[in-house]
């Protein structure tokens, strides 16, 4: 009997729809023929022969059509974020580029192209992704470039930011030889950040990021065009306004020597309570004071903020000492690592957090447990409005930014697929993971 990644086993038909606006590639046509062949002979599973072309209408309120774990990017929400971000860029006369560290689903880059024209990279692979898949050289910063990667990084970059004067001294000539158009910058440390979580604070004493003002030479090297400053994480525009005062106080003496300034990421302008007019005002004010400086912002989270969930299913319910744990087909460690790392408790659709330490007991209350062998791979207790049933969906909200780039294949657990929900509620699988993905990471 045929099976499809979207459908519970009992569905005996094969839902293959080709999106009306996207033609069939040769690969698609091959798979379509293979499908007809297999259909005649009754061999499947269909996900092996339709890895990319299955699409179907889906109900985004429940995702009841799914029986496998899946990250779902909602195109409509992504477009709304992109629109807001590109409006800020236009109104404030700045450039806003996408930080790959937060979001790198390259099959959606055509949508991004409608709104932005550059990206920022923190490694060779991100720089290649920008250059080869986004189609534009990247603004690149890494705390440590290497002899074995600097040439490729320079080739794929438009802007190259050095973290220290030593790194600058070691590589700036070589990078320019590789790419004569490269614009070179230095990361500076404003020694001021309102980020409270220590692991996300790039300015905490002892930081490894950036050069502080007292270590900068009064006259910058000739080929330094810009400063790069990153000191925000999910901050509001009020924090940016206050931070800017510190930045100007420390670094404005050098501004005359620069062409551009990059105020990094962490500007969460797509969050509902973010004061966007204040950001625009602040940027315009800065522009007025230093009209020769091109201003760049490079948020990541803001692009993919609230753009879709991770949908998982309940596999079992176990009990110990009165604590009921719903075992899921996903792992916090592998598929939602920030929940353990940051740490934070995710939002779960139609459930409320009963307690953070996972000891709550009561009607419809469950600890949520992963399918890995890590004892600590569980999260809090949630109260639902009914008893959970095996096979039902658990919808973890807002699981696109950072999550999709940070997942692992620890334990060999099947990695959730990644899908794009189009504006007409048609779901398109972008990527499914296989045993070979797990095997081929190692030797
Ligand atoms: C240098 C730099 N730029 C941009 C970002 C993106 O930040 P966010 O995703 O919070 O906007 C980060 C995040 O760590 C960063 O370190």
Automatic annotation (TrEMBL):
> Could you say which EC number(s) this protein's record lists?
4.1.1.96
Pfam families from the xrefs?
Answer: Orn_DAP_Arg_deC
Q: Which Gene3D superfamilies match?
A: Alanine racemase (3.20.20.10), Lyase, Ornithine Decarboxylase, Chain A, domain 1 (2.40.37.10)
Query: What is one Gene Ontology biological process annotated in the Swiss-Prot or TrEMBL record?
Result: lysine biosynthetic process via diaminopimelate
Record field: catalytic activity: carboxynorspermidine + H(+) = norspermidine + CO2; carboxyspermidine + H(+) = spermidine + CO2
Q: Which cofactor does it need?
A: pyridoxal 5'-phosphate
InterPro entries per the record?
Answer: Ala_racemase/Decarboxylase_C, De-COase2_C, Nsp_de-COase, PLP-binding_barrel
- CDD domains, alphabetized: PLPDE_III_CANSDC
Instruction: Tell me yes or no: is tRNA processing among this UniProt entry's keywords.
Output: no
**Domain named Orn/DAP/Arg decarboxylase 2 C-terminal: residues:** 248-399
What does the UniProt keyword field contain? Decarboxylase, Lyase, Pyridoxal phosphate, Spermidine biosynthesis
Q: Which GO terms describe its molecular function?
A: diaminopimelate decarboxylase activity
Instruction: Tell me the enzyme class.
Output: lyase
What is stated as this protein's family in its record? Belongs to the Orn/Lys/Arg decarboxylase class-II family. NspC subfamily.
Protein name (database record): Carboxynorspermidine/carboxyspermidine decarboxylase
Native species of this protein?
Prevotella histicola F0411
